[in-house]
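<tokenise_the_fold>
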Amino acid sequence: MDNTSRGIVAANPGYRLTFPAFYFSDDWKISKKLTLNLGLRWEIIGPFNEWAGRMTNLDPGKANDAAGGRLGALVFADDLNRKSFQNTNWAQIAPRLGFAYAFTPKFVMRGGYGVNNIAPVANFSTPSSFGYNGSIAVNSSNTALRFAQDPVMYLHDPYPSFAGVLPNKSQAPAIGQGFTYISPDGNKLGIVQNFNLGFQIQLPRESVMEVSYIGNRGQRLNSGGLDALNQLPVSALAQGDNLIQPLRSNPQLGALPFPTFNGSYAQSLRRFPQYTGVGQFLPNFGRSSYDSLQIMATRRMTKDFSILAAYTFSKGISDASSPLDGIASQDVYNRRLEKSVVDFNFPSVLKLTWIYVLPFGRDKLIRVSGLAESILGGWTLTGVHNYRSGDPISVGISGYNNAIFSGNIRPDWLNGSNSVIDEGKAVQTNGGTPYLNPLAFGRLPATANAIVSRVGTAPRVLPNVRGPQFSSEDIGISKSVLFRERLKFEIRGEAFNAFNRAGRGGLVTDVASPLFGRLTGQQYGPRSIQLAARFEF
């Protein structure tokens, strides 16, 4: 092996989080026509803690003796006689108000407002326990080799003994590593304000129509990607190729931030040059908005047929992503650049669901009996149809040197050009089919070493620009035969993507690619049919 390491686990942290909740809710029937629903929920969110205080944090205001006294040193909870670096959040309050008003027995208006707390999501991460555990590293820098090409270790060799002492709370081993900052108010949970107003009317033929406005506003959302505390400001791009030069061998660029520093000029300009990336545990400064018009019509099962049709017209905007995923921001100091249409919003969605019992039988439209009834009667058809807008589109560009340690670099978006030039043609296997207009997107000015002089103007997700629309139909047929009370036979067949649509997909979104803007593949898979038979006894 050329290099290898083995972890030494002296401490297995036991993390805890406690949040008791109290709530009150009741309905008041003010009159025959008006009903109110009022509620209040109060949660006390305790700090995310480790039962023995084995938790490490970055203190931005403490001098680091291993980095020449620069601010930004590690601190340890047990040294502070604490089990956490967070404070208790006493004010997680969520009120709710709803009403229903019946103009007539067949015409009702409903509305409401409520605040919902988002449960804490650790995103598969925990606070740092740096210093409480260690590792044994074997590499060419700490192993004597007879020849340069010799391995540092064979598989049958044992690891050397661990020479350190745990816990090791020295600042020196942390130099050159990345760390996570734990904010005292990081356990202020995200909230979503929900509001809606809708009308429901009963129509003839056992049909009901509902028309509703539904919206929400999110605050303090989990915002991984906007927590890069050690990113350089965009203004640093003015330094051009100097950013990637080793500072120690280019003293004309500036003084070393601390005597043992051995990084690039860009690294020296960071807020904490002694560390690489510095993120935040459970960052909670994302925001979002959602507004929608929702229409639903339902025809109950009468004469062996029922149908539900639902249409939603909506728009979602956010500067964050889902609770489990982060975003690759261009500039964490200008969060407005990350505010865009969300990458999981489809403006128009139509869904149809229906059930139809075939009209064969003694009391059906087509009267049959005996053997014919046994064969033709009792069959039920079902269908689920989905039609929606195309996928949101995010464009990027490769080939640039990201010298300011940001999430990514996006291209320019030239609004004066038509972004979509789709002619509706089928996907060509040799080179794809044009969909996005390459002239609507531009490269950025850059140095000889591919360092851009500014960030691009393209938003995180393009507004009003979508991929090809999506259509899908699933159809099923089934029949049940009851032989006696406890013996039943069922046969079922289902066809997913029944019309065998392929769709157009595989859009190339890298502006630097020669295939940029072209559709190169199918949108979804072929028809799938499954058959099943089952006895119940």
